[in-house]
């Protein structure tokens, strides 16, 4: 996992903050190519900030992010947008925009002045909508969609961007159980079938353990631990990172670890 050639993204000694408040302090993290990496940790630990920095939407105080061994600070915006796609938490769009119009926004990094919309653009949009099963919704207004339909439309926009790296910040937030599974199964399929490198922020530890190849626990501005779900889903680690006592069992269907929370380690 730590072979430099196998790292699609390499976060090196990255310090991130807001004003004088340091959120992540000299953090280093290799993100393997063609795998699903899940970032987990308590609220405010810097998961979303790290994801934004990987997409160069949050300037570091120090350190750097490498993409295929190239410093992302050296890439122009559209070039980076053709290589890394980011779906932020709770994105917004005009309510009267159609689904197809939303998905077409994903082609922006591929556009240039005086360059007309091309058959390749049409094909990318059609493929993205088909892959997320929103083709039948293409004429629907964004404001008329259910939560699950809207999330699939946003993911379609990211797919239309045709990036090899996909970053998703809490993609199952506010979705019911069925739509959570639909969303994560779609992401997993993209990883398996197309070899996309995926970085996810998830709060649900059991979903993280089911889908992650690499699981990363963040706490106190640092990486508390990273490794496979089997390595990280331990009662002592969960207590130290999340302040929760828990027991770990094995999922009888998927064979992955399952966390059964018992209570707060330090009741308020």
Outline of the structure:
The protein has 268 residues and is an alpha/beta fold. Helices cover 31% and strands 29% of the residues. One of its GO terms (molecular function) is ATP binding.
Account of the protein in words:
With 268 residues, the chain is of the alpha/beta class. It folds into 2 domains: 1-83 and 163-235, Rossmann fold, CATH 3.40.50.300; 91-162, no CATH class. 31% of the residues lie in helices and 29% in strands. It contains 9 helices and 12 strands. The strands form 3 sheets. A 6-stranded mixed beta sheet has the order 6-7-8-3-9-10, sandwiched between helices. It has a 4-stranded antiparallel beta sheet with strand order 2-1-4-5, covered by helices on one side. Helix 4 runs antiparallel to helix 5. The protein is globular. The chain starts with 6 loop residues before the first strand and ends with a strand. 36% of the residues are buried.
If strands are numbered along the chain, what order do they take across the biggest sheet? 6-7-8-3-9-10
Largest sheet: 6 strands, mixed
| N-C termini distance | 39 Å
Shape summary = globular
Mean pLDDT: 91
CATH architecture of the largest domain, by name, is 3-Layer(aba) Sandwich
Helix content: 25-40%
Instruction: List the quaternary state of the chains.
Output: single chain
Number of strands: 12
